[in-house]
Amino acid sequence: MSQKLQRQRHQAQTSINIGYLLLSFPLGICYFILIVMGIIVTALNLFLIGIPLLILFMSAIWKIAAFERQLVIRWLHVSIAPMAAPFPAQASRIQRGLLHLRRTVTWKSILYLFLKFPFGILAFYVTLVFLILCLALCLISAILGLLVAPFVYFYMAVASNSTLDSKAAGKYIKNVLTGAGMAFFPLIAINFLASLWSQFAQAMLGMNENAMRLAEATALAERERLKAERAEQSRRELIMNVSHDLRTPVASIRGHLEALLLSSNEQTLSPAMLYDYLQIAHRETMRLGVLVEDLLSLARNDSHELRLQIDTIDAGAVIEEVYQIMMPLARRERKISLIREIPPQLPAISADRQRLIQVVLNLVRNAITYTPDGGIVAISLQQTETQYITLSVADTGIGISQEEQQHIFERFYRTDASRTRSSGGFGLGLAIVQDFIQAMGGTISVESTPGVGSTFHLQLKIAPAIASTRQALV
């Protein structure tokens, strides 16, 4: 069956080769006329129009060569290397034009299209002659077969004692009708001619091995350059964010402490004002602690020095601890109701307890920050899959647009610069949350509707029946 399929494919490819060789004649004429006319028009108008006309002519030739390359690839089924590497992103049109003129493939493609004309003439006539020869051999073989077939039939019947071997007779008659295969020699020559031209196209319409290596090295250098530029841009953004966001709480703490020092000498500060000042200083100190912790986590993660202590822990206990920490703050400062929902008898999970607390604190803190006064923030647990538990942090806040949801886990990304300035963040919180969750073998996702609220879902792995503590490098 495979031999039959292979024979059918070979016959189909022979038909395609015949079509390509016959088509080469009109294509060669068109290419020749376009090249000659282009050279004449460019030469006559070079002093009038100049370089733009030359660039337009070379661009047209390049597109025609690209069309011919695709034609050879699809019809003759040959692999051809790319014609050229992409232009540098920062190159101007003039630079691209000069670079195009310096490419070897540019001039090889012109030579290829020019030689297509004599090859087209040769291929057209050779193909016609071979096809006529093939038909003639088949016709002669058919006539001889009709004359000889009765004698062959009689001879085989006598030789086999009046028992005719139909398969042997059919095979003999088939060989006679095809001239014992001689009629297919012209087709072999046609396939050979198409193969020679495909190899020529492979050499003329694609980069050579040295050019390919140079293009790969150039592309690698360009990627490294862009990577370095992004890293430098991130560094500048980090410095700007650190200088701005650390300055605000430090100035607030300093101002209130100076007021406390002055009032202590004058003894004019009431207990209520003293409490307010201390509360503000405490809040700004907590804010500084969060910023420093984010920076420290980022530095450790980038240097691969952040270690996670993966152990079997109770996710409900983690939520309860976060709830006890954040509930007074949410109620006192924002009049927000913080609630938790922990179903009984949930299986334990595999995670780093301290990092998971940091993750949930970050999400709850963000939810409180972006929820208007009187809103609700809920922390819940549920087992949605056999191997995972879902920890969700939902709020009735301002929400996140669909476009911003695609970027909120990127470093230094801020959904609203003025709003996050007041909250004092670098745009690192959610990026660090994602790094921690992925390092613990989980995933994070978000669902949000602007004006309605947001819900962050953490998929945490359920611990195996017998779990052992292990160290994991992020």
TrEMBL record:
SMART domains reported for this sequence: HATPase_c, HisKA
Asked if Transcription is a keyword of the record, the answer is no
Q: Upper lineage ranks?
A: Bacteria, Bacillati, Chloroflexota, Ktedonobacteria, Ktedonobacterales
Q: Does the keyword Amino-acid biosynthesis apply?
A: no
**Bilayer topology term:** Multi-pass membrane protein
Per its record, how is this protein called by name? Answer: histidine kinase
Question: InterPro entries under this entry?
Answer: HATPase_C_sf, HATPase_dom, His_kinase_dom, HisK_dim/P_dom, HisK_dim/P_sf, Put_sensor_dom, Sensor_HK_Regulatory, Sig_transdc_His_kin-like_C
**Coiled coil, from the record:** 214-241
